[in-house]
Amino acid sequence: MKVLVVGSGGREHALCWAIAKSPHCGELYCAPGNAGIDRVAVSVPIAAADINGIVSFADDNDIDFVVVGPEGPLVLGLVDRLEAAGVKAFGPTAKASRLEGSKGYTKDLCAKYQIPTAEYARFDEPDAAKDYIRVKGAPIVVKADGLAAGKGVILCRNENEAYAAIDHIMIEDAFKGAGAEVVIEEMLAGEEASFFALVDGSRALPLVAAQDHKAAFDGDQGPNTGGMGAYTPAPIVTDAMAKRVMDEIIKPTIRGTAEQGFPYKGVLYAGLMITDDGPKLIEYNARFGDPECQPMMMRLDSDLLPALVAAADGKLDGVTLKWRKEAALTVVMAANGYPGHYEKGSEIKGLDKASALEDVVVFHAGTKDDGGRIVANGGRVLNVTALGATIKAARKRAYEAVDLIDWPEGFCRRDIGWRAISR
Ligand code: AMP
Ligand code: GLY
């Protein structure tokens, strides 16, 4: 099979790494890829958002199967366009990916199908939104409806912060159109976890749960990022909890989207709050998590590619995936200054030494090959991932590898996994 993966992050490196091991994979391409992906796939210089470019490439090169990593091209309809061109693709259509692309749509679906989530209301008019805040009081959560690169959620401790959030999102249009509408919701208390399932339009195959670390600095301090590290399993998601998540959240969502005429195919990523009343949905993503995908791929003990194809074909029944009993943990190394301003182009040394450690894989994100030197080319740059008998052992191994990487222009958190380890 000729396979094309779309994207350039650590998630896509992990997907390429897993797919390249498959006996079903003949040729593997990645658009646009990065310096790490170059080692397992042929990188092609087409941006993930260049829908026309990707469809033409797939068509011209007789690609059999396309795996879409990030949400941007999904929401832009890449899967619809590929299917129209006769190319099989893994990922939801534009309409189905509204589960990630519109928070209001997802909340209404939850209401209709009694999926547990925070109490909410939707507004397209700032004064009405502020009236609602006045009635509900604080703490309260204000969210831009559309995609806002992970920054469209504002947790408000008091009413003034909430009014300012409305102004920021709706009047100042901070997220360029994504905030024409807002969702305002109750602040949930509990522990967060990321839960993943493969979905084929009508059936779901649970994968595993993971936990990530959104804040930039140790102790969950500093601004929110795309994710500074992750591990799997997530101890809070016991087998009994996973069953509840499937029965109360994932399955009704699949039924609901199918009934509404937008059957969901691809990977469904539920961002959960595990509360005293059980699991509640915070949000859906229409893709694998980044960095959660990296430790998940290290734990996967089955061939990923046929499972992705089965999901795209609507034939997940009978598919099973095995997972290693060990834990896996990823430490993200980011450029100094991230998630704010950072420089590109600094050289990274020691990658071979780090990768030579047993049970360690360094997945690349923002890297570039500059005439044989690996240089930083983004905010999140490396994902140092290790397996271990426990999360603690995986963490020790991952930081051993981090310490072999010589990159003064980068930083990482030193406490990835703290929540699981302190349990
Ligand atoms: P999102 O961008 O939707 O992933 O939200 C970012 C983060 O905001 C989530 O990971 C949670 O930590 C937090 N969050 C979102 N909604 C709520 C809520 N209703 N209650 C508490 N925390 C929330
Ligand atoms: N790790 C969070 C995300 O992928 O959205």
List the helices and strands and how they pair.
Layout: E1 2-7, H1 10-20, E2 27-32, E3 42-43, H2 51-60, E4 65-68, H3 71-75, H4 78-84, E5 88-90, H5 98-101, H6 103-112, E6 120-123, H7 126-136, E7 140-144, E8 153-156, H8 159-171, E9 182-186, E10 191-200, E11 204-212, E12 215-217, E13 221-224, E14 229-232, H9 239-259, E15 265-275, E16 278-285, H10 293-299, H11 304-313, E17 327-335, H12 351-356, E18 360-364, E19 367-370, E20 373-376, E21 380-388, H13 391-402, E22 410-412, H14 418-421
Parallel strand pairs: 1-2, 1-4, 2-3, 4-5
Antiparallel strand pairs: 6-9, 7-8, 7-9, 10-11, 10-15, 11-14, 12-13, 14-17, 15-16, 17-21, 17-22, 18-21, 19-20
Helix pairs in contact: 1-10, 7-8
The structure holds adenosine monophosphate and glycine (GLY).
Glycine binds at residues 212, 227, 285, 289-290, 292.
CATH class of the largest domain: Alpha Beta
The CATH superfamily of the largest domain is identified as: ATP-grasp fold, B domain
**Main β-sheet description:** 9 strands, antiparallel
- Uncertain residue ranges: none
Query: In percent, how helical is the residue content?
Result: 25-40%
Give the key terms:
Rossmann fold; D-amino Acid Aminotransferase, Chain A, domain 1; 22 strands; binds adenosine monophosphate; globular; 4 domains; binds glycine; Dna Ligase, domain 1; nine-stranded antiparallel beta sheet; 423 residues; single chain; 14 helices; alpha+beta
